[in-house]
Amino acid sequence: MRKASLHSFKKGVIRLTLIGLVILFGSLPSFLYAQEIDILLKGGHVIDPKNGIDAVMDIAISNRKIHQVAANIPSNQAKQIIDVSGLYVTPGLIDMHVHVFHGTEPQSYIADGHTSLPPDGFTFRSGVTTVVDAGSAGWRNFRLFKQQTIDRSQTRILAFLNIVGTGMYGRFEEQDVSDMNPTMTANMITRLFPELLVGIKSAHYWGGFTQVDLAVEAGNLANVPVMVDFGEHQPPNSIEALFMKHLRPGDIFTHTYSYGPANRETVVNEDLQVNPFIFEAQKRGIIFDVGHGGGAFSFRQAIPSLQQGFLPDVISSDLHKDSMNGAFKDMTNLLSKFMNMGMSLSDVILRSTWKPAQVISREDLGHLSVGTEADIAVFSLREGNFGFQDIRRTKIEGTQKLEAELTIRAGRIMWDLNGISAPHWETEISKK
Q1: Do the domain assignments include residue 410?
Q2: Residue 45 lies in a domain
Q3: DSSP class of residue 119?
Q4: What is the 3-state secondary structure (H, E, C) of 248-263?
Q5: CATH number at residue 324
Q6: pTM score
Q7: Is residue 408 part of a domain?
Q8: CA 92 – CA 215 distance, rounded (Å)
Q9: Which of 174, 150, 158 is nearest to 228 (CA)?
Q10: For residue range 264-320, what is the model confidence (pLDDT) as tens digits?
Q11: Pairing of strands 37-48, 88-91
Q12: C-beta separation of 215 from 188 below 8 A
């Protein structure tokens, strides 16, 4: 009884003390909230398209989530303060087209093969916190992909499931219509991994529309979008028919600015005019994805498109071994390329954060709303003389270039280019 009475007495004293402080100060003084914030990003220019923010603000992170986004958040509430003044702060980038089913299967092209890349080595250094693998695995080998890569990575990995059961094992396997099973593909998505599988991929098919139609059938069964790589038909199939007759609103056409007239129809014709049906397809709801890659981006297509008002819905990389060291390089280089072709910084951030989140129906991602997981990218915007290439080894000059300074994934600092989050070594010595 004495212990219970003492506990009640202490609670009463605390309650009266708090009431007294409110009467004295008008509210609880800020020192009582000290250490509530784990990381405070101070003074950066925040661009958050989903929430309509394009201004200098602070961002507070607590318990790995966004705690507050506001101007002049008191510093005495924070355990760690990072000065990001003069820098741009955005949601962590979402790269909606990558190949990260990295493995050592000697006969494989991308599925469990050397052409795919381990994601963590290539994401955080360019501000990317979420990637969507574009069909590297099918229903037969997705569980291996999950165990081998997804479960071992700090990058958030989602995926489009290939309509071919063995995924992108090889070009011949991708022609096997008997291994294109809409029911098994849809079951893998809806019954086993709905939190990871966000769509279906159709790619590298040499025939007509059979593979696309089977992918759409699976998409209807699972209620998810289909992404189509339509570039290997001889003679080329009609992309107008693809957009208007075979795909549904919300389905995705990747490698939008590819130029390969021998095997694929292009969005811009030989007179450098955007085909009128492209605008109609975009109005219909077809999603146009960049998917730069090692062989699927040409200034001959992209520049006339932007000049004539046809902009991509999503900017993505098609990251794999054969693209990263070529014209693509990384997502910061790709976003910079579009900025130097005339798009604004806000435009490219929208198309690499909130827009892809909407396309894959993951609206918990791609923004800085309070309560969401703290995935954040901090960029510098360098001014100077820069060059940007396409896959046809032509280039443009530019005057601005993004560089990832800091990347935070789920409230943890994963990349810090210049040590802006770290104390100086002499400061640490003086504490001892």
Answers
A1: no
A2: no
A3: G
A4: CCCCEECCCCCCCCCC
A5: 3.20.20.140
A6: 0.91
A7: no
A8: 30
A9: 174
A10: 899 999 999 999 999 999 999 999 999 999 999 999 999 999 999 999 999 999 999
A11: parallel
A12: no
Angle ∠(422,424,426) on CA atoms, nearest 5:
145
Find where tokens 């963590």 sit.
Answer: 120
Report yes or no on 421 lying in a domain.
no
**SS3 of 225, please?**
coil
The b/e string for 320-359 (b: 16+ C-beta within 10 A; e otherwise) is beebbebbbbbbbbbbbbbbbbebebebbbbbbbbbbbbb
Q: Closest Cα to residue 291, out of 160, 431, 100, 98?
A: 98
Q: Which domain holds residue 337?
A: 91-375+391-398
Among 404, 401, 297, residue whose Cα is nearest residue 339: 401
Beta bridge partners of 202: 228
Return d(Cα 267, Cα 309) in angstroms, integer.
13
- 402 bridge partner residues: 381
Q: Which two tokens stand for residue 153?
A: 């990575």
In 10 A of CB 424, how many CB atoms? 9
Structure tokens at 182: 């809409």
| Per-residue pLDDT tens digits for 72-122 | 999 998 999 999 999 999 999 999 999 999 999 999 999 999 999 999 999
Q: Which two tokens stand for residue 329?
A: 């390089």
Structurally, how many domains does the chain consist of? Answer: 1
Contacts of residue 416, Cβ cutoff 8 Å, sequence gap at least 6? 405, 406, 422
Contact 256, 288 (CB under 8 A): yes
